[in-house]
Amino acid sequence: MEKEQDIIDPEYLKGFNQGYTMAKYLPETSAKIVKSEVKTPHMEGFQQGRDQYLMEVVREKYPEWLKDGHPKYKEPPVSRTKDRGRDMDKS
Hints:
The chain is 48% helix and 0% strand. With 91 residues, it is mostly helical. It has a domain at 16-66. Helix 1 crosses helix 2 and helix 1 crosses helix 3.
């Protein structure tokens, strides 16, 4: 049984898919459409689909070591004992 928040409006989904596809194949046209003042679920989906595609294009330009899941990319370890047990003499 799906929760109410998990249900996606079909108009939003259709707009999202159209925005993603148009940004990929017709970027100038999608940019003009996004500038419109229409505020419907379809247009919100269109804008977010276009934004999603543009973010993916930017991520593809990252070097391999910056991409999520790359084996060389690891968060630096946090030293929890740094400066512990030392007197910080400020004289």
